[in-house]
Description:
The chain is of the alpha+beta class. The protein has a single domain (3-186), classed as Aminopeptidase, CATH 3.40.630.30. It contains six helices and eight strands. It has helices at 3-8, 31-38, 41-46, 55-66, 116-132, 146-154; strands at 16-18, 21-24, 74-79, 85-95, 100-107, 136-142, 158-168, 174-182. Helix 2 crosses helix 4 (55-66) and helix 5 (116-132) packs across helix 6 (146-154). The two termini are 30 Å apart.
Amino acid sequence: MSGGEEEVFAVRYVELxxxxxxxxxxxxxxxxxxxxxLTDDEVTRWNPANDVVDLDSARSWLxxxxxxxxxxxxxxxxxDAEDTMVGNVSLWALDAEHRSAGVxxxxxxxxxxxxxxxxxxxxxxxxxISDLGVERIALEHVIANPGSCGVAQRAGYLLEGTLRQxxxxxxxxxxxxxxxxxxxxxLG
Length: 188
């Protein structure tokens, strides 16, 4: 990797605005909300964090989320005006050589359908493209989760196609997924 690529993905903690939401690094005080979100049935079905089972494991999960030193991810807590966690969003699989990443998110049950995910994904994606120099961001979701298709579309991601039998549930069943992407030219 050349020096320029290392600089692009150097650890820089940033806060972002996404409509009424603020994106910041995780804090220990977020543990009760993180536990509630990560044990919600819809979250565990499509985007599980199986190692989070109590407040201690939620705090550990938050600490890993806040540690950007590996360069492989950037994870934010999405908080409301009272600084209460309403979701999270992550850039993951950051690849400096290919200038690519994936994006994922989770939202508290009582905050769904309020723009938390789509506005947060859009803010993080714009930041990744403009500040990190990422040239392609992928967003994948199980086809049986149409809410995530709406998030992708509202965040400006274009549908590329279907990944057959891409997602495997803990019970061994496999599901098809949609692949969406965002390129700098899509930002308009």
